[in-house]
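Cross-check.
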Amino acid sequence: MNPLPSLTHKADQLAALLRGGVFTHMDGQVMGEEDGLGRGLGLLNGSRQERNRLYLVGNGGSNAVIAHVANDFLKTCHCLVHILHDPATLTCLANDYGYENAYATALSILARPGDLLIAVSSSGRSANILNAVQAMTQAGGQVMTFSGFAPDNPLRQLGQWNYWIPSSHYGLVEIAHLVVLHHLAECLANQDTL
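Predicted model, tokenized:
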């Protein structure tokens, strides 16, 4: 029987991935950590100040991540947060338009120019997330993406702001996304702009 890996080893892996995370613009231009976090914070703060809506989408573990941080963006940051995975609404739209179009259909109805979408997909290849980004873009909104796995995944190239984790380990990618989202929420909450 192989010994279990230590928790410290897992923490070290996560820390290394966070140090290796890459922030990029839509054109693929890499931003350093400080600039990347600052620009992400700027998008969130601009959305909050203009009283635009903040939408969050993800699947599976990524859906749990966005459900968690939606609380922080609402309660501590006072953002107008909307998550689109209410079971009745999601299954209604998926049944009528296909799962790959469920989020996009909701956004095509709800999103307005200036709204902001946070799109999270570990693989960066989930059709429903990619379609949601397209719908937000068509509505005149802005997009922040969180992905991992392949460096050329399509989601990573679609946001005005993109964060990519260099790993194919679902759990580590999801937790890294959660750490960065929590950090952004804490920074936003601490800004004296309310």
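The helical segments are 7-20, 33-49, 60-75, 87-97, 102-110, 127-138, 170-190. The mean pLDDT is 95. Passed to J.P. for a second look.
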